[in-house]
Design brief:
The protein is mainly α. It folds into three domains: about 5-90, Winged helix-like DNA-binding domain superfamily/Winged helix DNA-binding domain (Arc Repressor Mutant, subunit A, Orthogonal Bundle), CATH 1.10.10.10; about 90-170, Tetratricopeptide repeat domain (Serine Threonine Protein Phosphatase 5, Tetratricopeptide repeat), CATH 1.25.40; about 170-255, Tetratricopeptide repeat domain (Serine Threonine Protein Phosphatase 5, Tetratricopeptide repeat). Helix content is about 65%, strand content about 5%. The chain contains twelve helices and five strands. It has helices at about 15-25, 35-40, 50-70, 70-75, 95-110, 115-125, 140-165, 170-185, 190-200, 205-225, 230-240, 245-250; strands at about 5, 10, 30-35, 80, 85.
C-alpha cells in the first residue's frame, strides 16, 4: 500500500495504523463501524482497551493528514460519523477503483466487438498492479477478504485481455506470457486452454499437444482428475489437425 500527496509518500509506518488506513480506503466514502475496525485489528482477541486504542490509530492518521494536506483538508478527508469513521476520497485517486472502472470498460468493449480498444483499457488496468495487493499490510479477516476479491478481479482482467489479444490474432506474442501464467496458476484450465490454442495457431502443434499432456499429468497427480471435456475435445482436434480446434478453448472463456 502506498499513499502519495504531490508525489511524496505519506504512508503510515506503524503496522496497526497502516491496517486502519487500508480498511478505510477499502471502503472509501463509506462509514466503517468501530466494531468492524476492531475486528480487523484484533479479530477474536481484542484488548479491553480496543475502542480507545482504535481511536488512537484514527488520531494518528488524522495527525498525518494534517501534516500532509493541512487541518482543513484533513477534516474533510477523515470524518467521524456515528457509528464510526470514514475516508472521503475522490475514487479516481484510488488505484483499485480506477482498475475496476477500466476493467469494466474493457469488458464492455470486448463484448461489443471492439477488441483493440478493449485490450488497451485492460492493459492500462493491469499496469496499475505493482505486486500482490496489500502485501505490506498485516491484514485481518476483513482485509483478507478484500485482497481475495482484488486478486480475483485481476485474474478476470487478465483473462479478458488475453481474449482481446487472441481476437486480434496475437497468438505468437501471447505464448511466453501464457507459459508464465500457467506456471503461476497451474490448476487454471482456462489459461492452459489459451496456451494450447495459441501454440496451435502459431504453427506449433507438437508443443500444443505437449502442453495438453503436461496439464493432464498435473491434474491427475494433484487432484485425480482428467482435463475438462472442452479441453479433451481440443486435444482431439489437435490430433486430427482440425481447423476448428481453437473454438473449444474459447468454450472456457470469461462469461459476459
Amino acid at each position: 500500500m502506498e499513499v502519495l500527496h504531490d508525489n511524496t509518500k505519506c504512508t503510515p509506518t506503524a503496522p496497526k495504523a497502516r491496517n486502519t488506513l487500508a480498511l478505510l480506503l477499502s471502503r472509501a466514502n463509506q462509514i466503517v463501524e468501530i466494531p468492524a475496525l476492531i475486528d480487523e485489528l484484533w479479530s477474536d482477541n481484542p484488548p479491553r482497551s480496543a475502542v480507545t486504542t482504535a481511536q488512537t490509530y484514527i488520531y494518528q492518521l488524522r495527525k498525518m493528514l494534517c501534516r500532509t494536506v493541512g487541518e482543513e483538508a484533513a477534516a474533510r478527508l477523515l470524518i467521524t460519523q456515528a457509528p464510526g469513521y470514514g475516508l472521503r476520497v475522490d475514487e479516481n485517486r484510488i488505484d483499485a477503483r480506477v482498475f475496476e472502472r477500466l476493467t469494466a470498460q474493457g469488458k464492455r468493449l470486448l463484448n461489443t466487438g471492439r477488441p483493440e480498444e478493449a485490450a488497451r483499457h485492460l492493459r492500462e488496468a493491469l499496469a496499475l498492479w505493482r505486486g500482490p495487493a496489500l502485501a505490506d499490510v498485516c491484514t485481518g479477516s476483513r482485509l483478507e477478504a478484500h485482497v481475495v476479491q482484488l486478486e480475483e478481479m485481476r485474474l478476470t482482467a487478465l483473462q479478458l485481455r488475453v481474449q482481446a489479444d487472441i481476437r486480434l490474432g496475437r497468438h505468437a506474442e501471447l505464448v511466453p506470457e501464457l507459459r508464465s501464467t500457467v506456471a503461476g496458476h497451474p490448476l487454471n484450465e482456462w489459461f492452459h486452454a489459451q496456451l494450447i490454442t495459441c501454440l496451435r495457431q502459431s504453427g506449433r502443434r507438437g508443443e500444443a499437444l505437449q502442453a495438453y499432456q503436461s496439464l493432464r499429468r498435473l491434474l491427475d497427480a494433484e487432484l485425480g482428475l482428467q482435463p475438462s471435456l472442452p479441453l479433451q475435445r481440443l486435444q482431439q482436434h489437435l490430433l486430427s489437425d482440425s481447423p476448428d480446434g481453437d473454438v473449444f478453448a474459447l468454450d472456457l472463456s470469461v462469461s459476459a
